[in-house]
Design a protein that fits this description.
Helix content: 40-55%
Distance between the termini: 60 Å
Number of strands: 8
Strand order of the largest sheet: 1-2
Strand content: 5-15%
Structural class: mainly alpha
Shape: elongated
Order of helices and strands: EEHEHEEEEEHHHHHHHH
Length: 238
């Protein structure tokens, strides 16, 4: 997968055959290194890392027996965490690290804005949250949608903190939901649901993005055709 200058190789296989999986990966890496050399490009092995993904049980059982990967003869480091296009990935594909990163970023922005809260109108505070923080909430939310309840609660409370910032006078023990609804905002969970729906609509109707749409098989909706045949006849007067 290639995005600008960010490139990844994904290889998958059964846990029973780690050697074959690593051999295939090494072959792919060697092919890319050979192509780069032929085209006058040098791969930087110090900026190249590898990560073994899977269930925690299989990762633990293969950790000490996994053969190494190489780039131009240099052995790659196997890392417990990788950042790919701004998303933090872990071997078991848990999202605690990514959620923590979102929380740190949002808290930093809120902390900076609190110094000027009393000099800002409520409408301007609302616009600042939408422009400076909601993008952080939404980025990659379709990917880490399957977070656990604890991680989802962290984002929920962080979203409530944004509502409290806009109003500035919500009592500490008061429910935030009426205030959030008055702003016309979805909850943190509903925002993620909305982003998933928008992504699904783009995949189904526009087949965009193409790499993602290629993972699906599209066919005529037979249920709609059957429903259309069951409609009563319509007569028009001449």
């Amino acid at each position: 997968m290639i995005y600008a200058d960010d490139k990844q190789i994904f290889c998958f296989g059964l846990p029973a055959g780690p050697q074959a999986l690593l051999d295939n990966t090494n072959n792919d890496v060697s092919a890319i290194a050979a192509w780069a050399e032929e085209n006058g490009i040098k791969l930087n092995s110090s900026k190249t890392s590898a990560m073994l993904c899977g269930s925690q049980f299989y990762i633990s059982s293969l950790k000490d027996s996994t053969p190494p990967l190489f780039v131009d003869g240099a052995q790659l480091q196997t890392r417990p965490e990788l950042t790919i296009l701004g998303l933090k990935l872990t071997p078991s594909l848990s999202w605690g690290t990514q959620v923590s990163r979102v929380c740190i970023s949002v808290h930093h922005t809120l902390y900076a804005l609190r110094y000027y809260r009393h000099a800002l109108s409520r409408s301007l505070r609302k616009r600042l949250i939408k422009s400076m923080i909601f993008a952080t909430f939404d980025y990659g939310s379709s990917v880490f949608y399957d977070m656990n309840q604890s991680e989802s609660l962290k984002l929920h409370r962080l979203h409530n903190a944004c509502v409290r910032f806009v109003y500035g006078t919500i009592p500490h023990r008061a429910h935030v939901t009426p205030y959030r609804l008055a702003l016309g905002w979805l909850s943190a969970q509903r925002r993620r649901d909305y982003n998933i729906i928008v992504l699904a609509i783009n995949v189904i109707t526009r087949q965009s993005s193409k790499p993602l749409a290629n993972l699906f098989k599209f066919q005529a909706n037979q249920l709609l055709h059957r429903a259309a045949r069951r409609q009563p006849p319509c007569y028009k007067a001449a």
